[in-house]
Amino acid sequence: MTESVDLVSEHLAPLVNLNLRDNEGFTLLMRASQQPSPEGECVNSNSDTVSVIKHLLDSGVNPEARSPDGMTAFEMAVQFGNENWNYVVVLLQHGAKVDNQALLRFIVANHKLIPHAYLTAVLDAMQARGMDFNSLDREGNTILFTKDVYSSISSGQDPSGSLFKILVDRGANPLVPDRHGYSLLRFAIGVDKDYGLYLLKFLVRTGVTTHQPILTDATRSRPKRKDYFDKSVHYMPSPTEAAFKVEDVQAFKLLIESGASNNRELFELIAQLEENCFYKTKVKTEMLNILKQAASQPRSLKSWCRLTVSHALICGTRREEKVTCLPVPQRLQQYILFHDILSEELQTPEEISHHKQSRRERRGFSKPTIIFCCRLGSRSPPNANTEGE
């Protein structure tokens, strides 16, 4: 293989057929794609193997040729145990045919094994090819609903380097609902363990909550009929109502204060909950009082201004950069970014303890993650330990 690489690197004459196969049925491109990437190699480096792959592709080598075991050079480069992501980027840039959804699922499922620089480079290459990170998968979800993605926002980790943020920075929209109309904010209330809390806080930071009333109204105005996807018609509670039902005081306060429900919904919730909530626990009584107070007492001018400015900034992970550019005092910038309601230091120990207990006691609503094998066209059964809806 080394001799072949050296020959190609010296730019063979045009008469040489670079699609020829060796005695085992592999082409030069296939062999090059299987070469271990040098340890510590930088993205977009021009190592010998990368140069060979580029030269072969520029010379018209067929990247879709398959090996005796049915794999293309691209599939060889991404297969487990031979993660030559630098080669993957080059092959993508030169138009290698690939199932975008399958590749994205494979990358998401294995993102912890991929160095950050390679991960962003591969996603950038996919985006340059027209990959839509908001397309729905076979289960009717965008990639942000995947456990591997939302669990990347967890305690003790800097969310700025999370897979969730990386995808949002590349166009994944946290406002796009699933096929049933479930918003990501509503989904966060049903996520088991503490993942839901971190996801909820992250969504508040990105400004999603001020857009939720529109999503809630859109969901409730959808035609109530059965179709191919919706096997049953059921009422879908808003994020605020869902937080009330599971007695998640912490999430409930975050949602109300950050504008996830407009006044009309708050009044409707009071009437509905007082009529249907026959057995009121101590926590539900407390939450109902919070709801009544929020509906009966108008927001302060400062609170209205915060929600208005937050909504005008549009949601996204770069909101903090935009806010810090505003010609206002730092304390007001922090207020616009909801620092006052996001800090656990401002919550009582009882609230934090009850929040954690309530999440342990209920099952989550996350969708099973599809793990794709090295053959990008196939998939393995969902992981048994993924959370069911």
TrEMBL record:
Belongs to the ankyrin SOCS box (ASB) family. The keyword Repeat applies. ANK repeats lie at residues 69-103. Residues 296-342 form the SOCS box domain. Keywords: ANK repeat, Repeat. Gene3D superfamilies: Ankyrin repeat-containing domain (1.25.40.20). It holds the Pfam family SOCS_box. InterPro entries: Ankyrin-SOCS_box_domain, Ankyrin_rpt, Ankyrin_rpt-contain_sf, SOCS_box, SOCS_box-like_dom_sf. The keyword Glycosyltransferase does not apply. This is SOCS box domain-containing protein. PANTHER family: ANK_REP_REGION DOMAIN-CONTAINING PROTEIN, SOWAH (DROSOPHILA) HOMOLOG. PROSITE patterns: ANK_REP_REGION, ANK_REPEAT, SOCS. GO terms for biological process: intracellular signal transduction; positive regulation of protein catabolic process; protein ubiquitination.
